[in-house]
Amino acid sequence: MLRKLTVLQVLPALQSGGVERGTLEVAAHLVAQGHRSLVMSAGGRMVAELEAAGSTHLAYPVGRKSLLTLLLIPKLRALWRREQVDIVHVRSRFPAWVVYLAWKGMPPDQRPRLVTTVHGYYRPGCYSRIMTYGERVIVISKTIQAYAQREYQVDAQKLKLIYRGVDTHQYRPGYQPEEAWKQKWFAEYPHLRGKRLLVLPARVSRWKGAEDFVDTLSIVCQQHKDVHALLVGEIAEDKQAFATCLQQKIHHAGLSESITLTGYRADVKNIMALASIVYSLSTEPEAFGRTTLEALSLGVPVIGYQHGGVAEQLAALLPEGAVPVGHVAEVAMLTLSWLEQPPTVLPNSQFSLQVMQQKTLAVYYEVMGDEVMSHEMTGDQGRAA
Fold first, then answer.
1. For FRET with 134, which of 192, 194, 214, 377 sits at 20 to 30 Å CA-CA?
2. DSSP codes of every residue in 175-189
């Protein structure tokens, strides 16, 4: 048997988002396989879930963009030695710089192995290049793989394509929320009873396509009075002004009774399961597009702009859902067509959580390389601290 590993994942915080969810999923798999899982961040609402699944959270402000954060470097080195960390997996740029400086300054035979994940289209430059400094560099879609090779000329041998995935046991066609949840939902939103729901699950911001969604509804609602649109996502502090402008746009379009902004919801899965159609209208390409995959895995049709990771998912599971970027009229026409005759979503056999977890663990063992083999041959209990 391969020896058990101690893996430390590092990211700025654990509030919400796809990066954070992926961190928890890898952590849970490590624990389930008997490994030791540590996660370092400034904390957040997802810490309780992380710890409940058996991981240890280390509260460090590694994402604080200040030169003072560099004072953490000696603490990181001491932590890695004390905890005998085998793998450090970094998922964000500023923490990556702090981790890399700490890692580079250690004797090679005392360092943990370094893995990074390129989660998005970072602005090209030296600051972002840090995400390609891992001994292995995970990319989450073919789109991001091409980006990393184009912008940073990353050695193809270092790159590892691992699609994000969803638990196909939890996200399955025909899934319906429990009756107790439905009762609570309709008590909170009684105006949604008897409505067909059109859902945009995304943080409220300009690039996530909220305005295009409203423009779509201004066409659709002229022909269908039984539909209601939901914008499901948090409104960050720096997006309050945009949210105000969006509400004004909704009002001027006469859609105040047809669109609801729910704010952050932890039950997006249940909301999407009730939807007739889910949308992905980001004006910039998504690196992957997790909620799109979740909806498709539930068997719910998705209309999405044809770029980034969303285009890859639609090509595999619902090709007719892809629309050229910015073609609002086409989104509206497709919506009207699907409200009359819903399409069939193909089963998700390509983007599963189980495959993502297994491939990530395989990368950890691969980057350990000779150290694992040495352990197997000698029975050594770990790398010297």
1. 377
2. ----HHHHHHHHHH-
